[in-house]
What does this fold into?
Amino acid sequence: MLVLMLPAILVVFTLLVVPMGWLFWQSLYAEGGFSLEHYRRIFSEGIYWNTFALTFRISFIVTLLALLMGYPVAYAASILPQRWAMLVLALVILPFWTSVLVRAYAWLILLQRSGVVNQTLMASGITDAPLPLVHNELGTIIATVHILLPFMVLPLYATMQKIPYDLMQAGASLGGSPLHVFLRVFLPLSMSGVLAGMTLVFVLCLGFYITPELMGGGRTVMASMLVSRNIQLYSDWGAASAVSVVLLVCVLAIFYVVGRLISLEKILGAK
Amino acid sequence: MNHKLSLGRILFIGYVVLVLLFLILPVLIVVPMSFSDSRFLSFPPSSYSLRWYEAFFGHAGWMSAARTSLIVACATALIATPIGVAAAYAINASSHWIMRYLKIVLLLPLIVPVIIVAAGVFFIYALSGMLHTIPGLIMADVMLALPYVVTAVTAGLHGFDKTQEMVARSLGMNRFRSFMTVTLPQIKPSVLTGAIFAFIQALDETMVALFISGGRNQPLTVRMFTALRDEIDPTIAAISTLLTAGSFALVMMMVLARKQTPA
Amino acid sequence: MKHNRCMNVTLGSSLLLGAVLVSSQSLAAGQITFVSQGGAYQEAQTVAILDPVAEALGITIHQDSAPDAWPMIRTQGTTGQAVWDVVDTPPFHCVRGGEQGLIEPLDFSRIPNAESMPDEYKTPYSVAYEFYSSVLAYNPDAFDGNPPQSWADFWNVEDFPGNRSLRNHPLGTLEAALMADGVPLDELYPLDVDRAFGKLEEIKPHITTWWTSGGQSAQLLYDGEVDMVMMWNGRVSAIIEEGASADFTYNEGILQNTHLCIIKGAPNLDTAIEFLNAAIDPEYQANLPLHIDYGPGNPAAFDTGKISDERAQELPSSPENAALQVLSSYDWWTSPEGEEAERRWLGFMQQ
It folds into this structure.
């Protein structure tokens, strides 16, 4: 059986595990020997500190927004009759199959100063002057939520679908109002889906590159951009590796903690 | 009471519809943009033309990028599917403790942030002379596609009754033949799903390709990324309309394949 | 039986694939990969220079574009895996790259067209290709007859309200900041980097977008995303021609040029040198101003009779226009101070 595993393992091993080990080693290597210099720099220099703070802030906001937007959609899909549920899911999955680049392009059209959103806002009298919706952190967040929302909805739906409808009816027949039943029965039972979705979105967001690069107006520098610039602009593998290792440790720690509560396959299975 | 309930329900439905619009509108808006006559981003376009489709099909650079992408995506599906199926079969057949860990290793490409994957692959390729080559792109995409293939096929094997293969083997077939004649036809939909996932994954992959491709072997996504960053070139809208239509067709194929053979 | 067919298909497609891979690599003769900065400028030089040169030499020119070629020059030079041959980039990249072993030194005996060029248009690693200027461009509709005319105006957010954009790169931007701070044009170099970043700190909150490529700057002004922007003069002219409401001034413009240089270990070195020589041929060079408002890198182009006197007057490098501007010093940008200023930029953007 191990022979059958070998080709797949070999590919992942040479292209992923080995370079990760090398990155780890690079991050500890400076001036000809073992050194924590790169880590000291990360934790003391404003550039790195600011970038990590920004990365975590954006990831939190994106995760929260995705939950607020994704939960009701998944709930609707789980209680609607099959035909409607399929439609809702199809609408969630369709953008999933559209290139991230294309969606960034679409958001530029929608959010720019003379774009559709600003025109609508001004025509309806909500604002007098166009709002700065893109080329900044806000634009980055909007586009990132759009890209990651399906990663929230799908695990949520997978969990909710398994909650037996009888249980809800039983709650209702015991005299609970629909809201009461929802809060006391449905919500707690859907928590593992919430956890899976939040983990997935948060972790994907931590490593995001394309939307901040294209929508951030040059000043929304997230951790992944720091890695890429250190490699491509300065050939500074030490700094790039240290940032990568910190990022990776954060991700693995999150997976480890969440993995104690729900299985790893459950988080990733919905992808 | 009843009235209040329906008001709440209307608000709820309204909210869900809004979120769905948020999801779908940006995907749809690209289609009319692709027929715009202007090179700038005004929406709705003031006049319509096919100039961006002409720009795509008539430009050697775009065409060569499209060819690179297709070659890479086909090769990725052709390579990732058999080795992914083999791995999934092994995971399913063996109950050895090491399998659980090996399975996690195979899921790593999904867990590790893609920027780190990109940096690592870039480093390995810089050492081995695989930078800016098509085989390099293919191998990286195979690695990234493996988790999808393994997950899809493991799910398929899960619903398959192992004893059937046992029977075939007891009739004297070797393991490989019994797999090919008994098991494979029954898990075909999930293998196909895995292959399509691998194909689309490779077609859509941007981040790693940004690091490891260059010169004449750039895939479509890398060209699109630079065109978007550098020019906000509406040719992207035309390409994306084609791509969306293409992947939509693939998804439909997948759904149909599922319908034909209920797993 | 069925699986057999399946295997055959797989085998067949892999063979086909192999054939495609091999054939795409065996086309090695008489071609180069040429890299410039995309957009209107790259389109103009394709018609003016690249296509005629390709025809004359019987070679194929593959084009690539990069708004900032430096990261790729570094990557290709340090990994020893060049995919580019000739790069059109600011001279300080060529010289710095040359000094770090990333750019081929040029054998001028094989570049006869460079002979007549003034010495200041050549470096050991590169020759001048074209002249352009980083100018203050604006949307006249936003200023009601009183548009900004200097970098001091650009920095003056009270009298000239509006959305602003600068390039996400220190080259030219530091010069503009110092001019806004009152440094006379002839005393700019060596740049007072601390003072320049201090002045940039002032305008930073008012910058809507830091653009990364010429095409993006054009897009921003055309779409009304910004009201004033420092951008390349040829890009402004291009969108004015497309009907945009835009204008610019040469006053306090930063006159720059780009050079052609060859990546160390370029895959098509010989063809690259042949191409480089042809690309600075006065005849082809004289075509460039006919397609975009950029001046030829080889001054001999003015003697070909192709460029009318009126046209010459409009170019950024004409004596009249040049007098209003400052000539960018590649010497300074090649120096360690210049390199340090470039490094400092990323930190500045993130604070």
